[in-house]
Amino acid sequence: MSTGTARSDAPGILDRVDSILDVIAAEGCMTLTQITEATSLPRTTVHRLLEQMVAKRWVLRIRNEYEIGVRPFHLGTLARQGHWYFRLARPHLETMRERTRLVVHLGYLDGTDVVWWDKVGDTRLSLVPTYVGGRHPSFRTAAGKALLASEGPDYIATHYAEELGHTTPESLKTRDELLEETRQIREEGLARSRGELLPHLSCLATPVTVRPVSTSDGHQTATAVSVCGPVDRIESDTSLAHALRTCAMDILADIAQSPRAPKD
């Protein structure tokens, strides 16, 4: 006989759907057998959920393989394009691009990763191989470090081990190094990465903090704006810091006038 504890520990329907979508998205397309093995869910459960997801266009079946359907793409696009913050910030990102001729990102924090909400410039991924919806370890990017600085030392202590994972030769290696660098970022208001994500790439970023409000993920209501380009250009252009601060202040000024912005 099943106990109440066993039932409460079992994954719910949304957990199972989430697991299925995750593995399909990671691989591109998968068979029923592959999805079953990757999720460790019962084959009959996976098959039943897949058929429901196909009917709702969350998943597309092609012969005996499944791939992500049009519905998640449609919802994700609507959520991004229709969000008040995105519509408010986008013109300022375009202005920043025109002033600097560099790639401009708008990022937010998801756990220990920075996720790119917007990218202006370099659509061919030739210089900066990032894309909207993509993610990278926060401590290896200027935008990510700016966001971690906004969260504060307690957040870093909770989310990072003493030795950082997924490092590169130029990146930070320890939590103590990350704590020290984010302390400096809070003092200066600017974050830097120098070849930490890719050897040829440097970035400069500043946080854009709306105001402390209660959120379901526990994060500050903050984004970060960054400019990225060749190491020599980022290191030598002394105008970038002022341009970034101006961009952030202009976004905040528009937020103050927006009826959609979070209120105290």
Number of strands: 9
Instruction: Give the strand order, joined by hyphens, for the main sheet.
Output: 6-5-4-9-8-7
Counted up, domains total: 2
CATH homologous superfamily of the largest domain, by name? GAF domain
Class from secondary-structure proportions: alpha+beta
Largest sheet: 6 strands, antiparallel
Distance between the termini: 51 Å
Per-chain topology:
Elements (H helix, E strand, L loop, with lengths): L3 H6 L3 H15 L2 E2 H8 L3 H13 L3 E4 L2 E4 L1 H12 L2 H17 L2 E8 L2 E8 L14 E3 L4 H10 L1 H7 L15 H14 L2 E4 L6 E9 L12 E9 H6 L3 H18 L7
Antiparallel strand pairs: 1-3, 2-3, 4-5, 4-9, 5-6, 7-8, 8-9
Helix pairs in contact: 6-11, 7-9
What is the structure about, briefly put?
The chain is of the alpha+beta class and 264 residues long.
Describe the structure.
By secondary structure, this protein is of the alpha+beta class. It has two domains: 4-73, Winged helix-like DNA-binding domain superfamily/Winged helix DNA-binding domain (Arc Repressor Mutant, subunit A); 82-257, GAF domain (Beta-Lactamase, 2-Layer Sandwich). Helix content is 48%, strand content 19%. The chain has eleven helices and nine strands. The strands form two sheets. It has a six-stranded antiparallel sheet with strand order 6-5-4-9-8-7, sandwiched between helices. A hairpin with a 2-residue loop joins strand 2 (59-62) and strand 3. Helix 6 (84-100) packs antiparallel against helix 11 (240-257) and helix 7 packs across helix 9. It is globular and about 60 Å long. The protein starts with a helix and ends in a 7-residue tail after the last helix. Mean pLDDT is 90; it is low at 1-8.
